[in-house]
Amino acid sequence: MDYRYLKAFLLTATYQSFSKAALELNIAQSAVSRQVKLLEESLGQELIIRNSKRMVLTTKGKEIFLAIKQFDSTIYEMVSQEAQAPIKIGALQGLFHSWFPPRLTEIAKQLNNPIELIAADINQLKEQIETGTLDIIFSTQNIQSDLLSSLRLFKEKFYLISNFEFNRRQLHESPWIVYGPHDNLFKLSKKPSKKIHTIQSMDMIVHMVQEGHGLAVVPDHLIEDELEQFHYMDISSSIPAIEIFMTTLNFKKLPDVYKTIFDIVTT
Questions:
Q1: Are 139 and 127 in contact (CB under 8 A)?
Q2: Rounded to whole angstroms, how far apart are CA atoms 261 and 90?
Q3: CB 205 within 8 A of CB 179
Q4: pLDDT digits over 171-196, tens only?
Q5: Which of 118, 147, 113, 121 is nearest to 134 (CA)?
Q6: What distance in Å separates the CA atoms of residue 209 and residue 85, rounded to the nearest whole number?
Q7: Pairing of strands 242-249, 136-139
Q8: What are phi and psi of 260, to 5 degrees?
Q9: Is the pLDDT of residue 30 over 70?
Q10: In this model, does residue 1 exceed pLDDT 80?
Q11: Helices marked H in the chain
Q12: Residue 4 has pLDDT above 60, yes or no
């Protein structure tokens, strides 16, 4: 059943007038009359008895009118409350712990929506956004498909930092502070250090470096205001910058809530 027929009947019954219903729907009066007639034919019931001066709802017409009115009210309420729906966001572990926190503060300030956050690897993030468990993910993958679409946010550059002088060719002679077994430090040195601290918090890694506990490779956004406090090396020639993307379902028109989040994280 075409919802247009229901809407035409609802407005006609509400205003007791085809012409007023047509005015609100911005269509011809004859089109409204035709849609009501098609609704009656599809139901096999007369809903309105009319003459040149007035119209009266039949018993079935009153029942249908009340049902459509309730349905229309429920749908409107659901749409108007959309802004209150939780926004479920996922991010790679590194982004989640280092880059995202200050943006989260601004997102929470500007949106009315409750926010749910998770940190996960890229495979988990992709699976959860494809199944609707997550609404937005932040990762290093540019995903473009019939289902998903990514927007580029920025390039993430890396620095090798310490609070003591170091030799680029002898990194293995100093203690290391790494995020995990795939940390970029392993790509910079042919030999691993004999003393490796593994800490899954980028903020804590920076703190450990400041306290003199070893070398670390960190993204530029984490130390951009504090770089001069360290002995540092731009390692772009060895560790290329990576791009960060915000991925959502492939909307024809990005919802306003998503646009707001995009604007916040790119500011």
A1: no
A2: 13
A3: yes
A4: 999 999 998 898 999 999 999 999 99
A5: 118
A6: 41
A7: antiparallel
A8: -60, -45
A9: yes
A10: no
A11: 3-15, 18-25, 29-43, 59-80, 93-94, 100-110, 122-130, 185-188, 202-210, 220-223, 256-266
A12: yes
Distance between CA 189 and CA 192 in Å, rounded?
7
Distance CA 240, CA 249 (A): 28
Return the HEC string of 226-250. Answer: CHHHCEEEECCCCCCCEEEEEEEEC
Q: Which element (helix H / strand E) includes 87?
A: strand 87-91
Q: Residue 106: what pLDDT? A: 93
Furthest C-alpha separation in the chain: 98
Q: Could you tell me the two tokens for 58?
A: 């039949």
Confidence of residue 210 (pLDDT cuts 50, 70, 90): very high
Residue type (1 letter), 99: W
Place of tokens 């009315």: 112
Query: Average pLDDT, stretch 139-150?
Result: 94
In sequence order, the 6+-apart residues with CB closer than 8 A to the CB of 263 are none
Q: Residue 37 is which amino acid? A: K
Helices 3-15 and 59-80 sit at what angle, rounded to 10 degrees? Answer: 110
What is the pLDDT confidence band of residue 46, given thresholds at 50, 70 and 90?
A: very high
Amino acid occupying residue 149:
S
Q: Please, what is the average pLDDT of the chain?
A: 91
Q: In one letter, which amino acid is 116?
A: E
C-alpha dihedral sign at 44, 45, 51, 54: negative
pLDDT at 83 over 60: no
